[in-house]
Amino acid sequence: MIFEHAEFHDHEAVSFFHDAESGLKAIIAIHSTRLGPSLGGCRIRQYSSTDDALTDVLRLSKGMSYKNALAGLPLGGGKSVIIGDPSVCKTPALLHAFGEAVERLNGRYITAEDSNSTPSDMEIIAQSTKHVRNMGFGPGDSPSPVTARGTFLGLEAALQHLSLTIEGATISLEGLGAVGMDLARQLHEAGARLVVSDIDPERVRVACSAFGARAVPSGEGHRVAATAFVPCALGAGLNARTIPEMQVRVVAGAANNQLATPEDGWRLRERGILYAPDYVVNAGGVMSIPLPGQSLSMEERMSRTARIPQTLKQVFDLAEREGIDTNTAADRLAEAVLGDPDATDRAV
Fold first, then answer.
1. pLDDT digits (tens, 9 = 90+) for 109-156
2. For residue 145, how far is the Cα from the chain centroid?
3. Between 3.30.110.10, 3.30.1490.20, 3.40.50.720, 3.30.420.310, what CATH number should domain 144-339 receive?
4. pTM, whole model, 2 decimals?
5. Range scoring the smallest mean pLDDT among 90-104, 174-188, 284-298
6. Are 118 and 124 contacting, i.e. CB atoms less than 8 angstroms apart?
7. Fold exhibited by the domain 2-125
């Protein structure tokens, strides 16, 4: 039952949509509209069950509330998932039907690009609803470089907190999608030694050729003896099984929901591993989305990522002062903003 989900009670609304003609099966979760309409991308994925899809959208939407709060945006948190194989189900008819579903929520949820959805998909969805962002991006102007830049700055800030630098560091990077590959390039140019892993052997080949990276099998990146582990693939990779196997000083990456459970943040702390909370580090993409009436150049979008190291410093300082793990510290800062939009300074 949906009401038995541990995280369901945190949400304002969870809506299920089905359109038999197009084959649409979607869930839209609105976690909070305390700061404004909920914004979060549309993820398209062939989930093993509806329950798995529900779990994903509940966690992701809550993460968006916290991400948007700490990014200083006048937006709440939401997320949507379309259940299906994107290579098969993602037709114009399905995207139109999804847009109609978004429109029925009367602006409480704003959709955007996410895993397996693209700027061109948003253009189609926008034919059925005005509640779409990422419309400022074209096919050659995606949010991925901004997310990658923010992740680079977040990793750099975490290393600097331990008096370490990217130059000369060994970085194990897991996941070579659009963000991960761009991040690998930036790390290579900054002088890092790269170890890479991905489920796609061609992406691994490209990274090894272009950046002089060393490859390890997919799913083994966390076990590499390195300065930092940078997860940029699926979530829940930091868990009771993997954390004892880690041999790094820092974890900072672009993947969402990296901790399988909140307790895993404490496990990292006990191992002496500094964790840069994912929704702080990967906020560059959402920071770069133009709000209504805005027009942002790529340079302006990139400049917004300078907030990420500043926020991480607040997180690290609060964690040290209170003797808590960094994910709890980040949650407290975000909850202070959600409870009182002017509370950020008082929280630290």
1. 999 988 899 888 999 999 999 999 875 555 456 778 999 999 999 999
2. 13
3. 3.40.50.720
4. 0.89
5. 284-298
6. no
7. Rossmann fold (3.40.50)
